[in-house]
Amino acid sequence: MDHRDLEDDQEQPAPVHPAFAHHSEAELARILSYYQVRWLYEPDTFPIGWSLDGDVVESFSPDFFLPDLDLYVELTTLKQTLVRKKNRKLRRLRELYPDVRIKLFYARDFRMLLLKFGRLGLLDELSGTLGQATPPREPVAAAPGPADAVELVAAAVEETAAAEADGGRAGRGRRRGRRRRSAARSVAHLPVDAASFAGPAPA
Amino acid sequence: MSRPVDLVNDIGEVLLTEEQIAARVAELGRRISADYAEKNLTLVSVLKGSLPFMADLMRQITLPLRIDLMEVSSYGGTATESSGLVRIIKDLSASISGEDVLLVEDIIDTGLTLNYLVRYLRGKNPASLKICTLLDKPARRLVEIPVDYQGFEIPDQFVVGYGLDYSERYRNLRFVGVLRPEVYSSPA
Lengths: 203, 188
Fold this sequence. Notes:
The structure holds 2 protein chains of 2 kinds. By secondary structure, chain A is α+β, with helices and mostly antiparallel strands. Chain A has one domain. Chain A has helices at 3-10, 23-34, 84-96, 107-116, 123-126, 147-166, 168-175, 183-189, and strands at 40-41, 44-50, 56-60, 64-66, 71-75, 102-105, 180-181. The radius of gyration of chain A is 18 Å and the shape is globular. In chain A, 37% of the residues are buried. Chain B is 22% helix and 28% strand. Chain B is built from 4 helices and 9 strands, in the order βαβαβββαββββα. Chain B has helices at 18-35, 51-58, 112-122, 181-185; strands at residues 11-16, 41-46, 65-72, 88-90, 100-108, 128-136, 149-153, 159-160, 176-179. In chain B, the strands form 2 sheets. In chain B, strands 4-3-2-5-6-7 form a 6-stranded mixed sheet, with helices on both faces. A 3-stranded antiparallel sheet of chain B has the order 1-9-8. In chain B, helix 3 (112-122) links the parallel strand 5 and strand 6 (128-136). Chain B is globular. Classes of the chains: A alpha+beta, B alpha/beta. The interface between A and B is large, with 39 and 32 residues.
């Protein structure tokens, strides 16, 4: 990769970020984009609990997927004492999907991250319930270069369409134990134009 | 920083003494000298935090070597952040093509900066690229990058000194210490 390439990439038009559920998620997305780490927002939903009939009764959608790192990231800015439910879900996810790599970012981790970047002052408005507002959709820096993000979305659409074609309980049974891409959200949250993704491909 | 800096009382705990650091740097120097014999070693340091480590490490390496310096913008920084993307503030001053490059870092925590730098440097076609860090904070790693030479693995605490800063201060401490939380909790 040449420095010039980076400069050129930085001049690409910025895509629109998804509507995040929490300000802290938007901040983490900005940090990832800043360091040119490609991300997808809530691209997958993992069933983690089923009824006796085989219906999914509980699922888990990690906040981010970093395709180049094959890593899911779940961010929680709740106090440590309040994350028991999330920890339980995470344990269940790891039991059912041992091949899935996921990192949970606790409030403390996020606080240290902001401290590192000298943005600790943001913490109050990003933490806990105070941060749980959906910010307006605004153009910010690109999640650089996820050409394959588009492929992921396309695959998700295809997968979901196939599942819908199957329909009913038979389809639900087959989905048991498999991750399910929530295609609608992925499509809504990712720029459709692949050219709008700036940034270099990973070396 | 409106709160006055107190280089003594702002430090809650000395994590690594000057002597511990010196001993470990000497050990790293011996290992690197052995591993890079007959190679074209270039040390690339990342400003500003790595400066003391680089200065000490290079003097513990008993091989002919070149050094170079880089500086990249940090998230939350000043005008350089306007693009929303990390930028190289100071680039390499010479080609590293064909060189055996050792990237010298002060600390690796999330790995975000390092990930960017590794990608960038690989694009310069070095013969090899390895990583040496004085401090490693694996608990906070987001981007997994293999570290070839590690000085110390440290707990998840905010540390300053021996090049590491908080609001550009404390870099000149001769040891690595844990900053008292009330220092960074105070209004800046």
